[in-house]
Amino acid sequence: MNRGLLAVACYAALSGCAALDRLPVPPVPAVPLPRAGDADPAATAAAADAEPSDSAFVAERARQAYDTGRWDVAEGYYLQWLRLKPGDAAPWFQLGNLYAEQGRLDSAERAYREALRRRDDARTLHNLGLVQVRLGVGALREAQKRLPPDDPARRETREFLRALLGSAAR
Prior knowledge:
The chain has a single domain, classed as Serine Threonine Protein Phosphatase 5, Tetratricopeptide repeat (Alpha Horseshoe). Helix 5 runs antiparallel to helix 6. The protein is built from 8 helices and no strands. The chain is mainly α.
């Protein structure tokens, strides 16, 4: 493939991804799903009074832990939510957001894929795409470090990264 065409394709693919201008380690902008209870205080109160085995209660506790940066607690609640609602995409999506926020990109990618298996959703695809771009940039940077200086692949990798990262900054 022509390098110029490849750079244009990368630019077109990334031109709308504002989060990529903070590479190498930007947080994935998690696009949260609407939360049950956000618009209904009665639903929030009901979730607080629910039994711990109730998925709404567990989901709310997970959200609270996530929002306060208690990642390990949030992860435990998300995993519990998954056991309570194995066919639901929402806990997988939120777990993907948690992993992406922590930089656990392989785990985030797997969680987003599980969410997509349960529900075809554009927000999940968006977050999956951002995680995959971050993984790809990381792999290209590592390849550039490892390739010998006189290897043509190293020059191509450097040019590709320059085009890719330059297009994200525009």
